[in-house]
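Let us work through a complete example step by step.
Step 1: write down the sequence.
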Amino acid sequence: MPDMLLIFPPVAKPCELPAGIARLAGALKANGHHCRLLDANLECLLWLIGNPVAAGDTWTRRAAMHRTRHLESLREPDCYRTPDRYRRSVSDLNRLLNLAGQERGVVAGFSDFQDSRLSPLRSADLLRSAEQHEQNLFAPWFSQRLPELLGDDDSVGFSLNYLSQALATFAMIGFVRKHFPGLRIVVGGGLATSWVRRPGWTNPFGGLVDEIVAGAGEAPLLSLLGSDDPGKYGSLPDYSGLPLEQYLSPGLILPYSASSGCYWNRCSFCPELAEGNSYCPVPPKQALAEMNKLSIEYRPALVHILDNAISPALLDLFQDSAPGAPWYGFARFSRELADPDYCRGLKNSGCVMLKLGLESGDQGVLDRLHKGIDLGVASRILENLRQAGIGVYLYLLFGTPAETLEDARQTLAFVRAHHESIGFLNLALFNMPLSSMDAAACATEPFYDGDLSLYTGFRHPQGWDRREVRGFLEREFKREPLVAAILRRDPPLFTSNHAPFFC
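Step 2: predict the structure and record it as tokens.
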């Protein structure tokens, strides 16, 4: 029976285990298939840091000299108790990645990879990245590492989730296709899924990639590997093939998906709704049992629940049971959280932080976006979480067709009024999903130049365009002292992935 190598490519934040390939590994092994896992992202970034570019400036020399100590610091809890030490470690290590990228004419860092010559939004450029794979920043690494892991009868799967991974993914695919022409190459993951569900999708990679999988990959992979009944597979991920001690966090962060899609699934302009992603939960009692089993096996410092929104049914279970380790994840401003005792129950279960998508502090905007959020209830929830000792990472979205400048100022007023209950802030500019049914109501125009773009430009019905939105955020919103104090707390580069350790 052929082996399968599952690869998580660079670049993504190297702070927690890659959930997608671990979930696939669990399904494949449960059905008798042997597979191996390669976190190429973690290995590539550590390889770049370990081989710093020689530079004459003091900052770079200092960063190179202390790189081992900085890596060790980010794996120790004490570092997170001293924000200045944490920031120094992150900035110095990211400096080494930046300079390594500059040598090849690219922007590289802990959370970014850009090439001014090639765009991940153009299929022709991704094909060029495959053809010119030896020019990729990571080529010296993967040209040695991949032959160590691949055999002539293997299959190889790439988990492509972010734009920052696309160019490196196709460079590695080009290398594999050239040196192992008989291998079956499969691409899946969040970004690949969005491509396939893009309106008018036609596969431009047919001569290079054997299969592009949209959505959950367990059944398609099992079918490709010849399983008699690919509809039967377990949901328990297998992380055992990953370098558990090397991630840049103070203890293991174990990601777990209790569902795919979103149980609310009504928000205007939501990519999940636009792409037609249905809500598929793991039964809550099963999800809790699986988290407990994984916590016993891997002893994580933190469980990251990856759901778009943790279901009320699972939150209810946390009132009497715990997932076996401290945890955090996204939740909605649901009425259950308006009960102080309910929030204390979540704290007792190990909840360290909740990520909450408010989007706007104006009730009219929330209603027009069909968010299902009442600002009065949201206010009580924020206070309840503060009193319970649960951190809040609040997400705001500016420039939607439902918002005006005055509405945005209401959001500023809301944050100002609740600053003591908000630990961290994420400020985002609205992008119109290309496949959104609501886009038809707005005059659209080109947004990104590329046949793989997932968004379209639009003319705001109130003239609240992106330039004005950016100006408001920079000149007004971020300059409010109470807001600025919240923004300064955000962990640089790692943001919400490390924020629970500062709560």
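Step 3: interpret the result. Residues 83-103 form the longest helix (21 residues).
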